[in-house]
Amino acid sequence: EDLISPITSYVFLRFRFFNQDPVTRRSGTPLRFFFHLKQVDIFINELSVDTLLYLVGKLGLMGPYAVRNSAIFPNCCKIENNSRLALVCHFQNNGDAIVPGQQSTSVFLRNFVFDDNRTHDQSLVSISLFKEGAFSTAPINIPLHESGIFAWRTVASSLKDSRRFSGPFVVVKVSQNSVEGLSLSVQPLLRIYNKSDFPLELRFQRPQNENEEAAVVTVRSGDMVDESTGVLDAMNLSGGSKKALMSLALGNFMLSIRPEMSEHSNLSHATLFQWSEDITGEKAVRISGVIEKLNYNIRKAFSIDSMKSSFSSLSCPVSVDGQHVTDLYFLIHTLGRDVPLQPTNGTRVSGRSASVALQLQREIFIYPTVQVYNFLQTDIHVLLTDSKPENTRDDNFGLIGKEATITSGSSAYFYVNPAMFNFSVTLISYGSKSKAANSGDWAKRMQKQTARAQFLDLELEFVPGKFHSSLRLLRQEKGLLEVALFTRYTLQNTSDYPLLCTASGQKPLP
Fold first, then answer.
1. 178 Cβ neighbours under 8 A, 6+ residues apart
2. Residue 21: partners with Cβ closer than 8 Å, 6 or more residues away
3. Which Gene Ontology BP annotations are present (predicted)?
4. SS3 at position 287
């Protein structure tokens, strides 16, 4: 409303349906928008005119308009704060901008242009991180006239006393392009995401110091923890737990996980989730089975060619009343890249001949191992087991994370051994159960192919033989094994009359 007052508009949409692949969801759909408005009242200023002209040119709106060049982007800076701490940016002669954690904003820089005659001091921005009532970091000067990506080790000062200590690492990326213009992105050096259904406890220890006290951090489902959070927590700790959190950014740590106990505190029996085995910050364990045979699309998290990607798995033993019943498996996906490390005095080393060290920036994603999609027209019950279905326990405690009822059009996560498991499906509406399929047989079938495939299509047969469905195995951006249940054709009756459908060659009922 600061630029354009509320207006009355009409939008018409027209498109045609085409057959769509139920897994890839790709199809060609002709789409047309018709937009009509009676009157627009615009508060004329430089920013509003530039914005309006750019939208008119990009959207191709009808009218006597001609956009030769837009001057909005050279003077607009997009700031992305990907850390959990608040970010303060001070632009020379353009004031300050405060960006909360995990948010972004755009700043209009008045009289800011990239001119060779303009001194570099006039195109600097100083950034610092702070936690209200806790600490703030010393400012770091970033030149905006030169694109690049660099890492700094900050120096933090406590706001409660005069203590100074090593703060979190920050990775700063400055880029310019014709679409978004000037962009400033501030990222932590280490981020760990919990993409599972469980709230997870993360235990950090230093290698060769297993007798030291470990640091434990709880991460809710869908949440994230980064190195800046660890530094903040370490301020109130001492001993081995403090050293473990402070060593996260250096990669000198061991990580183990387990689901939080409160998630299953309502069970009538004493259920214990034990810690998984340890993985180090720099070492990855190769996974095997059908998941390794399928090719996958690496997610461009850092959008650079030097990105490193690795997969490993962790298992958490589950005990009930002191007896081991099953293991919960998690897929660990690590993405990383080497970033030039700058000195801690806030001054960037410029020049290609300057010798700088490299620091590894990483993102660690904790996923389930299997995700099953139900594209059938009925609800299904899916069971994944590490052993044959007839050998499962009667009390079903061994099926924690191994079974789920999936409604039509939805999906569910499973925490089964990705190297070997059995798969079965029950059509709830018809009480028909499929023949058990083994992932080892799928892997053998993949080995017969000459090249790594993007997916594998199979047929799933149901007892007593009246039903069957298609089964597709694939790995997409997340890297976990995705199993899609679907049929090649779907019949939908949109008429006012019921239809009687019979198999081909079968005589209809009288």
1. 73
2. 27
3. protein retention in Golgi apparatus; protein targeting to vacuole
4. coil
Q: Which residues contact 44 (CB under 8 A, 6 or more apart)?
A: none
Rounded Cα distance, 249 and 259, in Å: 24
Q: Are 134 and 159 in contact (CB under 8 A)?
A: yes
**What's the domain range around 452?**
370-486
- Let me know whether 351 and 267 are in one domain: yes
CB atoms closer than 10 angstroms to residue 203: 18
Three-state DSSP at 118 gives: coil
Are 359 and 223 part of one and the same domain?
Answer: yes
Residue 140 lies in a domain: yes
Question: Do 203 and 167 have their domain in common?
Answer: no
Query: Rounded distance, CA 480 to CA 472, Å?
Result: 14
Q: How confident is the model at residue 390 (pLDDT cuts 50, 70, 90)?
A: very low
Given 325, 343, 367, the domain boundary residue is 367
Strand, helix or coil for residue 32: strand
Residue 329 CB partners (closer than 8 Å, separation 6+)? 313, 314, 315, 316, 369, 415, 416, 417, 418
Evaluated on CA atoms 386, 488, 292, 205, the torsion sign reads: negative
Question: Which DSSP symbol is given to 438?
Answer: E
- Which one-letter amino acid corresponds to residue 471? L
- Taking a C-beta distance cutoff of 8 angstroms, is the pair 20, 28 a contact? no
SS3 78: strand
Asked if 234 and 351 sit in the same domain, the reply is yes
Give the number of C-alpha atoms closer than 13 A to the C-alpha of residue 399, restricted to the C-beta side. 18
* Number of domains into which the chain is organized: 4
Q: Where are the beta strands (DSSP E) in 179-278?
A: 181-188, 190-194, 200-205, 215-219, 224-226, 254-259, 271-273
Half-sphere exposure of 183 (CA within 13 A, CB side): 15
For residues 379 and 447, membership in a common domain is answered with yes
User: Tens digit of pLDDT for each residue in 440-462?
Assistant: 888 888 777 656 667 888 888 88
- Kindly state whether residue 505 falls inside one of the protein's structural domains: no
Closest CA to 189 of 277, 51, 82: 82
User: Which pLDDT does position 1 carry in this prediction?
Assistant: 47
Alpha carbon distance 31, 14 (integer Å): 6
pTM for this predicted structure: 0.77
In a domain, 498, yes or no: no
Q: Which tokens go with 273?
A: 């989730």
Q: How far, CA to CA in Å, does 378 sit from each of 258, 319, 409, 494?
A: 34, 34, 9, 18
Q: Which residue's entry shows tokens 């405690």? A: 397
Last residue of a domain, one of 326, 341, 367: 367
pLDDT digits (tens, 9 = 90+) for 163-211: 787 788 899 999 887 666 788 999 998 899 999 999 999 998 877 766 7
Query: Is there a domain that residue 500 lies in?
Result: no
Residues 81 and 174 in one domain: yes
Mean pLDDT of 254-274: 75
Place of tokens 């069971």: 383
Does 42 share its domain with 101? no
